[in-house]
Every structure is written in C-alpha cells, then in structure tokens.
Amino acid sequence: xxxxxxxxxxxxxxxxxxxxxxxxxxxxxxxxxxxxxxxxxxxxxxxxxxxxxxxxxxxxxxxxxxxxxxxxxxxxxxxxxxxxxxxxxxxxxxxxxxxxxxxxxxxxxxxxxxxxxxxxxxxxxxxxxxxxxxxxxxxxxxxxxxxxxxxxxxxxxxxxxxxxxxxxxxxxxxxxxxxxxxxxxxxxxxxxxxxxxxxxxxxxxxxxxxxxxxxxxxxxxxxxxxxxxxxxxxxxxxxxxxxxxxxxxxxxxxxxxxxxx
Length: 261
Hints:
Blueprint: E1 6-11, E2 14-19, H1 30-45, E3 51-56, H2 76-95, E4 101-105, E5 109-110, H3 112-118, E6 122-126, E7 130-132, H4 146-154, H5 156-165, E8 168-170, H6 171-177, E9 182-184, H7 189-200, H8 205-218, H9 223-237, H10 241-252
Parallel strand pairs: 2-3, 3-4, 4-6, 5-7, 6-9
Antiparallel strand pairs: 1-2, 7-8
C-alpha cells in the first residue's frame, strides 16, 4: 500500500522494494529499519523471486538517519548497538542475499543511505542524483559500511578525499570514480533497473549465489585461497541441474531455463 513506509511489489520474478517516506527524503527511523529487515527476509525466502530492486519514493533515495530521532538523545552505547544490529543487519542481508540486488538511486543519498545503496550488486543512478558523505560536517564518521564499500571502489587516497571533503558528488562523478555502474536520465531509471532485472532472472540462481560468495570472500583472501574457494564452488555447481541445462541449451542452440537446482 502507498501508505506503507516500505512498499514491496512482486512481479514476474522481480521484487521491487521502495523506501516510502518521501517527505523526509526516506530518512531512516526505527520503524522503517525494522520494516526493511522484514521485507528483505521476505525476498530472501521467496523462491519465486530471482532479482530485487531497491529504490526510494519521491525526490530522494535515502537521506540516512532520521535526525528527529536524535532529539530523544540516544546514549552512545545505543547508537553503537543500533549501527551493529539494524543498519548492519540491513547491509548484511543485502550483501549476503543469494539473489542479485539492484539499487535504483532516484535522488540524493547520504549517511547510512550510502551504505545501503553501495551494498547492492548493481548501482544505477539518475542523472540528477548525488551522493554525500556528510558526517565529517557534524563531527562524526561515515557508517553503515560506507567506508568499506567506498574504499574498495575508489582506493584509499580517493576515499579519504571524498569523505574528508563532505561535499555532494554528482552522478557523473560517481560513475567516473567507479562507485556506481551507470547513469541514466531520471525518467528512465526504473525502466533501466527493470530491464537489468529481467536479464538477470533468466540466468542461473546457483551461479549468482556462488559468484557473489566468491567475490565477497576474495576481498579478504589471498590468490590461492580464492582459487581453492573457486574450485569448491565449481565442484558443487558442476553436478547441478542448472549446469546440465546450460550445457544442453548451448548444444541445442536454445535459451536455457534455469530452475536454481
């Protein structure tokens, strides 16, 4: 329903998750964080869903934490625990999701919204959108995994420059730095995300799951550890029905029909 703080739409093997607090640029209060966790779990457990799109309602993707929550003066320990359990839980669900996740960045994103956006497998940005690591301007550090994702995307030196600067980074610069995958006209954003999702749902879910696991592991493994991990994944996949279907489809010169088995 349009009055839900997180809208979930399932259609043709694709789940679209919309953060729905447009009046505050989809800022994250406690309710929306818990609802997003539930919706992500729903998508994970629904075998009919093969790809997920995350976007925001209105003019912004996500402004980060709802600053009105800070009027209640949470303790430093509460802030730490919230980052670990809720923000960390959201990012963990996305990064460990065994289905491809596309972020359709429809407008400005900042704070923890960056962590959520960059944790997705694909990042498509509207041409008028921007990203801002603004924490330094209020005496805090970037959180929700955003320092991790940014550093791996642009490198140590550039990551410090971006975070220290605390300035808005337009979509074109995000693309040039390799933070996102593509930039499209705003009016074409959701169509582009859906087209990508439609392409992904036709591929093997097992191969996606294993590939995502390998990529995540490779960030903390050495070369030969990664080769061993690849060999173990291949040993599992080589016996799958999806692999046999892929081979048969290639031989028969037809489109494969993968089942995730």
